[in-house]
Amino acid sequence: MKIYDGSESGDSEETTPERIKVGIAEYEVTADGATLTTSGLGSCVGVALYDEHSGAAGLVHVMLPVADEVDDGKPAKFADTGTELLIEELESIGANKRGIEAKIAGGSDMLDFSEGGSGIGDRNVEQVKETLSDHNISLAGEDVGGDHGRSVRLQATTGDLVVKSANRQDRTL
């Protein structure tokens, strides 16, 4: 898609970055400035990784903390294997692990139980942080917890993660 940039000469056009939707238990990587989005982050966690030097960025939507012994063929479904997969995929398109920074959102407790909720959201956040630490990747920002859902948009040209929620103002990490 081309858009007019408003310059006086009328000759300039710029390309609008592609927008790629990431579903539950899915991931995407880009090195061409696409915008990666995901929605429905309740207890799930969106993990956004960005390497400024290579311009590589990726987003995974994980829903459970740890992959079990049974391989269901969906490593992006789990916080441990999904985060590791995203790191590997970023490296395969030119990212240097030492330059990658992470931002995360989600991990809410959406269920109202008398015993204090399910704890899946907290466990997802904890596992993502542990996996990032195991790979020496710094956590540059987070919007986690609470009792509300979120949607995120990773702007791969800048590494900004825009977090949207119905009950509050958009937040940029």
Structure description:
By secondary structure, this protein is an alpha+beta fold. It has a single domain (17-172), classed as 2-Layer Sandwich (60s Ribosomal Protein L30, Chain: A). 17% of the residues lie in helices and 38% in strands. It is built from two helices and twelve strands; from the N terminus they run E-E-E-E-E-E-E-H-E-H-E-E-E-E. The chain has helices at 79-92, 120-134; strands at 2-4, 13-15, 19-21, 27-30, 35-41, 45-51, 56-62, 100-106, 138-144, 150-155, 160-165, 168-172. The chain has a five-stranded mixed sheet with strand order 3-5-10-11-12, with no helix packed on it. The protein has a five-stranded mixed sheet with strand order 4-7-6-8-9, covered by helices on one side. It has a two-stranded antiparallel sheet with strand order 1-2.
Summarize, please.
By secondary structure, the chain is an alpha+beta fold. It has two helices and twelve strands, in the order E-E-E-E-E-E-E-H-E-H-E-E-E-E.
Name the descriptors:
173 residues, alpha+beta, 60s Ribosomal Protein L30, Chain: A, 5-stranded mixed beta sheet, 2 helices, 12 strands, 17% helix, globular
Extended strand count: 12
Helix amount: 10-25%
SSE topology string: EEEEEEEHEHEEEE
Overall outline: globular
Rg for CA atoms: 17 Å
Function: Probably deamidates glutamine residues to glutamate on methyl-accepting chemotaxis receptors (MCPs), playing an important role in chemotaxis.
GO molecular function, one term: protein-glutamine glutaminase activity
Keywords: Chemotaxis, Hydrolase
Catalytic activity: L-glutaminyl-[protein] + H2O = L-glutamyl-[protein] + NH4(+)
